[in-house]
C-alpha cells in the first residue's frame, strides 16, 4: 500500500535540531497565515478550543515573533475591543523556481506567497550543473534586487521527487536519481524543498487558494501534458507514484487520437497542447501554434472548432471523474493550456453535468493563471509550508 509522505526540507542544521511546532501550534499558525487578521474567538471556534486554551497555545508563537497582534478593533460582538492575530507577511521571503525543459522561471514571495518580483533564465542545457547554477543565479538576482535575505527555496519540476529531495525520474530533463535538493542546499546554504510541479500547485491552492474554502479539492493541469493532484482534509496527497503522470492517461474517448504511448483517447491525447496542435496541423497541412489554434477555433475554423469541442467534452469528463472518484466538489484548473476552458466552457460544463449524478453537489470550478509564474509560486508555497514556522 502506498503511504502519504511528509515533505521535509533539506537543511543540515535543522535536521540535527528540528525545533518544529507541534501539530496544534502549526495548525494555529497556518490558520492565522491563511485567514488573518483574525480574532482569538474566531480561531477558538474553528479549532474547537476554549479561548483560554488558544491564548496559551498562541503565546509561544507571539513570543517567537511568528504571530503578531494588531490594533484594538471591535469584533462585532458586545464587549470590549479585541486585538486580532496576524502574521508579519514581510518577515520572511521565499524563492520559488519552476524548472522546464528550456528555462527556469522564478518568483520572490513574502510569507503569504504574494509575488514580489519574478525573473526567468533560459537553460542552455539541462545538465544538473546548469540547473543548479541557473537557480543560484536567480536567487542572487531576486534577493539582491529586493534587498532581502531568502528564508528558503522551493523548486518544482515535472517528474518523481522523493521526500529527501532526490529527483528519481524526470524524463524531460533526462534525469534519474539526482540529489537536487542536497546540491542546492549546499550551493546556497538555504533550506530547500523539491517537489513535483503539480503537487506544488496543489500546495499553493491548499494554503492560499481553493483550500481556504474547501478542505478537499482536486487540481487538473493542461499543458505539455495533463497533471492531476489532490488535497484531502487539508493535506496535500503525496504517494510513491506521485510524478508518474498517471492522470495523463485516463481514458476519455474511445474514438479519440492516440497519445505517444499508444493510448487512444486518453487525457494526454485529448487535452495536451502538443496533441491539439498536431491534430489541427495535420488537417491544415501546416504547423500551428497553440495561440493560433485558439484563434482559428474562435474564428470559426471547422477543424480547429471540432478539435477544441472534443477537448472541451474530454475535459468535462475528466473533471467529473475526479469529482466522482475522489468525492470532491471543488476542482482547480491550471497549466499553460488552461485557455481552452474559456474557449470550450459550454462543452466542458455539459460533459461534467452528464457524468455527474443529478443529486450530487455542484462542482465549483476555479481557473488559475496560465502563466508559468503560477507554477513558480507553487514552488514557493511548498517552501513556505515547510519552513515558515520553524522556530
Automatic annotation (TrEMBL):
Gene3D superfamilies: 3.30.420.40, Winged helix-like DNA-binding domain superfamily/Winged helix DNA-binding domain. One of its GO terms (molecular function) is kinase activity. Keywords: Kinase, Transferase. It comes from the Bacteria. InterPro entries: ATPase_NBD (IPR043129), ROK (IPR000600), WH-like_DNA-bd_sf (IPR036388), WH_DNA-bd_sf (IPR036390). The keyword Signal does not apply. Belongs to the ROK (NagC/XylR) family. This is NBD/HSP70 family sugar kinase.
Amino acid at each position: 500500500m502506498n503511504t502519504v509522505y511528509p515533505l521535509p526540507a533539506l537543511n543540515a542544521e535543522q535536521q540535527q535540531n528540528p525545533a518544529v511546532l507541534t501539530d496544534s501550534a502549526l495548525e494555529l499558525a497556518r490558520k492565522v497565515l491563511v485567514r488573518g487578521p483574525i480574532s482569538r474567538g474566531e480561531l477558538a471556534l474553528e479549532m474547537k478550543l476554549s479561548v483560554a486554551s488558544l491564548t496559551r497555545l498562541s503565546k509561544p508563537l507571539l513570543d517567537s515573533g511568528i504571530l503578531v497582534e494588531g490594533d484594538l478593533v471591535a469584533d462585532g460582538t458586545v464587549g470590549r475591543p479585541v486585538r486580532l492575530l496576524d502574521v508579519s507577511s514581510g518577515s520572511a521571503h521565499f524563492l520559488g523556481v519552476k524548472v522546464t525543459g528550456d528555462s527556469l522561471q522564478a518568483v520572490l514571495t513574502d510569507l503569504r506567497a504574494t509575488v514580489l518580483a519574478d525573473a526567468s533564465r533560459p537553460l542552455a542545457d539541462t545538465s544538473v550543473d546548469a540547473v543548479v547554477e541557473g537557480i543560484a543565479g536567480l536567487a542572487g538576482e531576486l534577493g539582491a534586487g529586493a534587498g532581502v535575505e531568502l528564508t528558503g527555496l522551493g523548486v518544482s519540476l515535472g517528474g518523481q521527487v522523493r521526500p529527501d529531495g532526490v529527483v528519481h525520474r524526470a524524463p524531460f530533463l533526462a534525469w534519474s536519481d539526482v540529489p537536487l535538493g542536497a546540491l542546492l542546499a549546499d550551493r546556497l546554504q538555504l533550506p530547500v524543498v523539491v517537489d513535483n510541479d503539480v503537487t506544488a500547485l496543489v500546495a499553493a491552492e491548499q494554503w492560499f487558494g481553493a483550500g481556504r474554502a474547501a478542505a478537499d479539492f482536486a487540481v487538473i493541469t493542461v499543458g505539455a501534458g495533463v497533471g492531476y493532484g489532490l488535497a484531502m482534509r487539508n493535506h496535500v496527497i503525496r504517494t510513491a507514484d506521485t510524478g508518474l503522470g498517471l492522470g495523463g492517461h485516463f481514458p476519455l474517448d474511445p474514438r479519440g487520437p492516440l497519445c505517444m504511448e499508444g493510448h487512444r483517447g486518453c487525457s494526454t491525447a485529448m487535452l495536451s497542447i502538443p496533441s491539439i496542435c498536431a491534430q489541427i496541423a495535420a488537417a491544415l497541412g501546416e504547423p500551428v501554434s497553440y495561440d493560433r489554434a485558439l484563434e482559428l477555433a474562435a474564428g470559426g475554423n471547422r477543424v480547429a472548432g471540432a478539435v477544441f469541442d472534443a477537448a472541451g467534452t474530454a475535459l468535462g469528463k475528466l473533471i467529473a471523474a475526479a469529482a466522482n472518484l475522489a468525492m470532491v466538489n471543488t476542482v482547480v484548473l491550471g497549466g499553460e493550456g488552461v485557455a481552452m476552458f474559456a474557449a470550450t466552457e459550454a462543452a466542458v460544463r455539459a460533459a461534467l453535468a452528464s457524468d455527474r449524478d443529478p443529486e450530487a453537489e455542484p462542482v465549483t470550478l476555479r481557473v488559475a493563471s496560465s502563466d508559468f509564474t503560477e507554477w513558480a509560486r507553487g514552488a514557493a508555497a511548498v517552501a513556505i509550508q515547510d519552513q515558515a514556522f520553524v522556530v
